[in-house]
TrEMBL record:
Keywords in alphabetical order: ATP-binding, Cell membrane, Magnesium, Membrane, Nucleotide-binding, Phosphoprotein, Translocase, Transmembrane, Transmembrane helix
Stored PROSITE patterns: ATPASE_E1_E2
Domain of life of the source: Bacteria
This protein's name: Cation-transporting ATPase, P-type
Regions that span the bilayer: 61-82, 88-105, 254-275, 281-305, 787-808, 828-850, 862-885, 897-915
Main location: membrane
Subcellular location(s) of the protein: Cell membrane
Topology of the protein relative to the lipid bilayer: Multi-pass membrane protein
Cation-transporting P-type ATPase N-terminal domain location: 11-85
Any one of the GO CC terms: plasma membrane
Similarity-based family: Belongs to the cation transport ATPase (P-type) (TC 3.A.3) family. Type IIA subfamily.
Molecular function via GO: ATP binding; ATP hydrolysis activity; ATPase-coupled monoatomic cation transmembrane transporter activity
Length: 929
C-alpha cells in the first residue's frame, strides 16, 4: 500500500497533460458530483488523521493516588492501622480516596472541555464540485476534488497543482526545512525519490505562504505524507500554566508546613500535656491530614477549564489553559481595524474620477441600487472613465458572491469583502460581470499583499477593450506608481497638481472614516505579453494610468463602543494597528470611542515608524496612538517595545505575516472567520466572530477566574484556623481544656465540607467590578499578605471565637466550667459536636461571604450559582448524619444535640454575614472616596 501510494503521488507529478491527470484521478474540470463524492467518502474515508490514543483512562485514574501528597496520606493511614488505630486509618484513607476520585473527575471534565474546543473550529477549504465553487469542511475532501488555495491556507491533502500564481509553501512540518519553497504546475521529469522535492505537488500539513493555486487532490487522510508522521502533531503536551505551577509549589510548601505543625503538636502533646505516646501520635497525624490542601490543584484546573468553556460560548476559543490567566492581566490590546472593530461588510457608496464624482445607492451585497451624479442616475457606458473604473475593479476582484439559497438566507461572500463589493458596484453601473469576465480572460495575477498594499491582474483576449492590465490598491501606494491619468477616456500626464487633487479627494472621504481604493490601468508592453512569465511587480506596477477612486463604507461593530469604554475603565489601553489610511483610521478610532473625543492622538504611519528609534517609539506609546498604513511585520516591533515597557500585550492578526507578532505577544488573537490557518496556529486565542468585543469579554473572564481562585483559597485557608485553635488551647492549657474538637472531627471537615463549596466558588460569575481595577501584574502572587490576613484574622478569627465559645457554653449549660470541663461521656461528646457544628455553620457563612470581594451578596444574581447552595445543603446533611447515625456517632465521637444547640447553630451565619456586609460597605465607601 505504501509503495502503491508513493507511486500514485509521483506518477501524477510526472503526468504532463492536464487531461491525463483528470483521467487518472477520474475527475473533470467541473469537479466531482455529489454522488461521486459520497462514493469516494465511503471508499477512502474522511480526510482526517486518526487520533493516537493517549494514556488509558485507568492510568489517569491511578495517577491521582500516587502524587506526593497522596503517598503521604497512604503512609499515614498505614501507620494508623499498624498502631491498631483502625478508625483513624480508615478516615485518612477515606480522605485520600475521596480526594483522588474528586481530582480525577475534575481533571477528566477539564480534559473534555478542552478536547471539545478542537471540534469547534473546523477547517474549511474551497472546492469545485458539480461545476460550482463551494466552501466545504476540509475533512470531507476526497481524492479527485478540485481545490482552490490562497495565501495563508493550510494544505488539507496531498494535491497536484494544475494552476499556480507565485506559490511559496512552508514545508517545515514535513522536512524541517524552514525556508519556504516555490511550487508551480510544471511537470516533474526526474524525481529524487523524495516527495517533498516534487515541485508540482503540495502536501497536507504544510501551509501556503504566498500566492494562489488550483489543484487536484491525490490522496487524503492517513494516506498523505503527513498522515505518516501524524504523531508529530498529536503528542503535543499541554504545559502547566504559571498559576498551576505556582499552586504546585504552594501545595508542597503548605504540606511541608502541615508536617512541621504535626510534628510540633506531637512533641508538645507528649512533653507538655504528657499524653500517652499513641494518643499524641494520633493528634499529630490528624493535624497533618487536616492541613494538607489536597484538592487545591484540581479545583484550579477545573476552574480554568470552566472559564475556557464559558469563553468559547462567548466566541473566544482559548487554545491553552495558561492563556486564561495571561488574559486576565492584559494591559494593552493592539487591534486590527477591518473586520475586528468594523463589520467588514463593505458597500461602495462613492465613485470618483478626475472630472466627476458619484454616489452609489443600495446596501450590502444585494444587487439593488444605482449610480447617481447629483440627482441623475448614470450608467457606466455614459462615461469612459467610470466604465474603466468599474470594469478594472471588477476584473481585479477574486471574491465571489453567492445569492441566498436554502442554506443561507442572506447574500454570502466567498473571499475578501473589500473585493466582493466591487462586483456589486459594477452591476449597479449596468456592467454585466459575467460578460466582462468572458471578454477578458485573466492570464496572470500579481497577488495582493499587505506590504505593497495593491494587486494587479493581466488580461488576455481584450481586443474590443482599450486596456488589459488593472491594478487596485491603497491610493497613495497606487498613485506613486502612476505617471498619467485618465480624463474622459484620454490618457494625460500626471502633474503634481493633479496628484494633489486626487489626494485631496481621497482625504475628504477618509476623514469621514470611509475606505478608499484607487484603480489604475495600462496596456501591457508587447515584449512582456509575449513572455508573460517575465511580468513581475517590478516591471508591471509602474508608469500606470490612474483611473479613479472607489469609496466604500464599512460600518463599525455595534458592541465595540461599550467594549472600548470598559477597557478605559479597566485601564486597558487600546491601540489600533491598521493597514488602512491614517485619516480613515483616526476617524474610525474616534467614532467608536477608542480615542476620547477631544484628546490629541498621535497617528504614526508605517513610514514614520521606520524612521523612529526604539526610545522614540516607547515615548510615543505612552500617549494616545494609532498606527496606520502599517505592514504586518511592523506589528512585531510595536509589541516588542510595549513588552519592554512592562505591558502585557494582546495582539490581533489574520494574515501570514501577522504570525511573528502573534507569537511574540503575550496573547496572540487570530480571527476565526477571516484569519488564515497560519495565523490561527500562531495564536493563543481564536475569535470565532472576529469581534473586538469578544477579546474584552475574554479578558473579563480571565480576571474573573483569578479572583475566583483567590476566593476559594480564602475559603479553604480560613477553615484551618478554627480547626487549629482548639488544639492549641488544649496544648497551651497543658491538657486542662480537653480537646474541643477531636481529630476524627477535624478529618470530617476535610472529608466533607471543604471541597464542594470551594468548587462552587470556582464557578462564580466574573463580577463587573473586576473591570474596575487596573490590570494585575504578572509578578503578583496569588497568596499575599492581604489574603492571609483576611483568611486567618478575619473569617478564621470569627469562626475560631464562635466555635470555641460554643464549646465552653455547651459545657456551661451542662454544669461544667473551667477548669472542670467534661473530658469524656455524653457531655464531652455533645460539646465537641457543638464545636464541630459551629465550624460548619461558620463555613456556610464564609462561602457566602467569599462569593464577592466588595459587592454585597444581596442582588439579583444571588441564586445564580446553584453549586454554592448544593454545597451548603450537603454540609448540613453531612453534619446531621454525623450527629444522628449511630455508627458515625461511634466513629466520630459525636452525640445528638438538643433544640437549644440547634437554635444556636442555625443563627450563627446571620451575624457573620451582617458583619462582613458592613466591612464590604466600608471598603466600597473608602474606594469610592
Ligand atoms: P486592518 O489592517 O485593520 O485589517 P486593512 O484591511 O486596511 O486593515 P490591509 O489588509 O493590510 O489592512 O490593507 C491595506 C490597504 O490595502 C487597505 O487600506 C486598502 O487600501 C488596500 N487593500 C486592502 N485589500 C485590498 C485588495 N483586496 N485589493 C487591493 N487593495 C486592497
Amino acid at each position: 500500500m505504501e509503495n502503491e501510494k508513493r507511486d500514485l503521488v509521483t506518477t501524477i507529478a510526472q503526468l504532463t497533460d492536464g487531461m491525463a491527470i483528470y483521467n487518472q484521478l477520474d475527475t473533470t474540470e467541473k469537479g466531482l458530483s455529489t454522488q461521486e463524492v459520497n462514493e469516494r467518502l465511503a471508499k477512502y474515508g474522511k480526510n482526517v488523521l486518526h487520533e493516537i490514543k493517549g494514556e488509558p483512562l485507568w492510568l489517569e485514574f491511578v495517577k491521582n493516588f500516587t502524587s506526593l501528597m497522596a503517598i503521604l496520606l497512604w503512609v499515614a493511614g498505614l501507620i494508623s492501622f499498624i498502631a491498631n488505630l483502625t478508625e483513624l486509618g480508615i478516615a485518612i484513607w477515606a480522605v485520600n480516596i475521596i480526594n483522588g476520585c474528586f481530582s480525577f473527575w475534575q481533571e477528566y471534565r477539564a480534559g473534555k472541555a478542552t478536547a471539545a474546543l478542537k471540534d469547534m473550529l473546523p477547517a474549511y477549504t474551497r472546492v469545485v464540485r458539480d461545476g460550482e465553487e463551494k466552501k466545504i469542511l476540509a475533512q470531507e475532501l476526497v481524492p479527485g476534488d478540485i481545490v482552490k488555495l490562497e495565501e495563508g491556507d493550510d494544505i488539507p491533502a496531498d494535491i497536484r497543482i494544475i494552476h499556480a500564481t507565485d506559490v511559496r509553501v512552508d514545508q517545515s512540518t514535513l522536512t524541517g526545512e524552514v525556508n519556504p519553497v516555490n511550487k508551480d504546475a510544471r511537470v516533474v521529469r526526474n524525481t529524487t525519490g523524495n516527495h517533498a522535492d516534487l515541485r508540482n505537488t503540495i502536501f497536507s500539513g504544510t501551509s501556503m505562504l504566498k500566492g494562489n493555486a488550483i489543484g487536484i487532490v491525490v490522496v487524503t487522510g492517513m494516506e498523505t505524507d503527513f498522515g505518516k508522521i501524524a504523531d508529530l502533531t498529536q503528542n503535543v503536551k499541554e504545559d502547566s500554566s504559571p498559576l498551576q505551577k505556582e499552586l504546585n509549589v504552594l501545595t508542597r510548601q503548605l504540606s511541608a508546613l502541615a508536617i512541621a505543625i504535626g510534628i510540633a503538636f506531637f512533641l508538645l502533646a507528649t512533653f507538655i500535656v504528657h499524653y500517652p505516646i499513641v494518643k499524641a501520635f494520633v493528634f499529630g497525624l490528624g493535624m497533618i491530614v487536616a492541613f494538607i490542601p489536597e484538592g487545591l490543584l484540581p479545583t484550579v484546573t477545573l476552574s480554568l477549564a470552566g472559564a475556557v468553556q464559558r469563553m468559547a460560548q462567548k466566541n473566544a476559543l482559548v487554545k491553552k489553559l495558561a492563556s486564561v490567566e495571561t488574559l486576565g492581566s492584559a494591559s494593552v490590546i493592539c487591534s486590527d481595524k477591518t473586520g475586528t472593530l468594523t463589520q467588514n461588510q463593505m458597500t461602495v457608496n462613492h465613485l470618483w474620477t478626475i472630472k466627476h464624482s458619484y454616489t452609489v445607492s443600495g446596501e450590502g451585497y444585494k444587487p439593488k441600487g444605482s449610480i447617481l451624479e447629483g440627482p441623475k442616475e448614470v450608467k457606466a457606458a455614459d462615461n469612459p472613465d467610470l466604465f474603466e473604473l468599474l470594469r478594472g475593479a471588477l476584473l481585479a476582484d477574486n471574491a465571489k458572491i453567492v445569492a441566498p439559497n436554502k442554506h443561507h438566507k442572506r447574500y454570502q461572500v466567498l473571499g475578501d469583502p473589500t473585493e466582493a463589493c466591487l462586483e456589486v458596484a459594477a452591476f449597479k453601473g449596468g456592467i454585466n460581470p459575467e460578460l466582462e469576465r468572458k471578454i477578458a480572460v485573466r492570464i496572470k495575477e500579481l497577488p495582493f499583499d499587505s506590504d505593497r498594499k495593491m494587486m494587479t491582474v493581466i488580461e488576455e483576449n481584450v481586443a474590443i477593450r482599450t486596456f488589459d492590465t488593472f491594478t487596485k490598491g491603497a491610493p497613495n501606494c497606487v498613485l506613486e506608481q502612476c505617471s498619467s491619468y485618465l480624463e474622459n477616456g484620454k490618457v494625460k500626464k500626471l502633474t503634481a497638481e493633479i496628484k494633489q487633487k486626487i489626494m485631496d479627494a481621497n482625504d475628504g472621504y477618509a476623514k469621514q472614516g470611509l475606505r478608499v481604493l484607487a484603480v489604475a490601468c495600462q496596456q501591457l508592453p508587447e515584449e512582456l505579453r509575449k513572455e508573460i512569465k517575465k511580468a513581475s511587480i517590478a516591471n508591471v506596477e509602474q508608469k500606470m494610468i490612474f483611473v479613479g477612486l472607489i469609496v466604500m463604507f464599512d460600518p463599525p461593530r455595534k458592541e465595540v463602543r461599550a467594549a472600548a469604554q470598559l477597557c478605559h475603565k479597566a485601564k486597558i489601553k487600546i491601540i489600533m494597528v491598521t493597514g488602512d489610511y491614517s485619516l480613515t483610521a483616526e476617524s474610525i478610532a474616534r467614532n467608536i470611542g477608542i480615542i476620547p473625543p477631544d484628546s490629541h492622538v498621535n497617528v504614526v504611519t508605517g513610514e514614520d515608524l521606520k524612521k523612529m528609534s526604539d526610545s522614540e517609539l516607547k515615548q510615543a506609546l505612552k500617549g494616545e496612538i494609532v498606527f496606520a498604513r502599517m505592514a504586518p511585520e511592523q506589528k512585531y516591533r510595536v509589541v516588542a517595545n510595549l513588552q519592554q515597557m512592562g505591558e502585557v500585550v494582546a495582539v490581533t492578526g489574520d494574515g501570514v505575516n501577522d504570525a511573528p507578532a502573534l507569537k511574540k505577544a503575550d496573547i496572540g488573537v487570530a480571527m476565526g472567520i477571516t484569519g488564515t490557518d497560519v495565523a490561527k496556529e500562531a495564536a493563543d486565542m481564536i475569535l470565532t466572530d472576529d469581534n473586538f468585543a469578544s477579546i474584552v469579554t475574554a479578558i473579563k473572564e480571565g480576571r474573573g477566574v483569578y479572583s475566583n481562585i483567590r476566593k476559594f483559597l480564602l475559603y479553604i485557608l480560613n477553615s484551618n484556623m478554627p480547626e487549629a485553635v482548639p488544639s492549641v488551647l488544649f496544648l497551651l492549657s497543658g491538657g486542662l481544656i480537653p480537646l474541643p474538637l477531636t481529630i476524627m472531627q477535624i478529618l470530617s471537615i476535610d472529608l466533607g465540607t471543604d471541597m464542594l463549596p470551594a468548587l462552587g466558588l470556582g464557578k462564580e460569575y466574573a463580577e463587573d467590578s473586576v473591570m474596575e481595577n487596573p490590570p494585575r501584574s504578572l509578578k503578583q502572587h496569588l497568596i499575599n499578605r492581604k489574603l492571609l490576613f483576611k483568611a486567618f484574622c478575619w473569617y478564621g478569627l470569627w469562626a475560631s471565637i464562635i466555635s470555641t465559645g460554643a464549646y465552653f457554653f455547651s459545657n456551661y449549660f451542662s454544669g461544667y466550667t473551667f477548669p472542670h470541663l467534661a473530658s469524656n461521656g455524653t457531655v464531652y461528646a455533645q460539646a465537641t459536636t457543638v464545636t464541630l457544628g459551629a465550624i460548619i455553620f461558620c463555613q456556610i457563612a464564609a462561602v457566602l461571604n467569599c462569593r464577592y470581594e466588595k459587592k454585597s451578596m444581596f442582588h439579583k444574581h444571588f441564586w445564580n450559582n446553584s453549586l454554592i447552595f448544593v454545597s451548603i445543603i450537603f454540609e448540613i446533611v453531612l453534619f446531621l448524619a454525623l450527629t444522628y447515625v449511630p455508627i458515625l456517632q461511634g466513629v466520630f465521637g459525636t452525640a445528638p444535640l438538643g433544640y437549644r444547640d440547634w437554635l444556636f447553630l442555625v443563627c450563627i451565619p446571620f451575624p457573620l454575614i451582617l458583619i462582613d456586609e458592613i466591612r464590604k460597605w466600608v471598603v466600597r465607601k473608602r474606594s469610592s472616596n
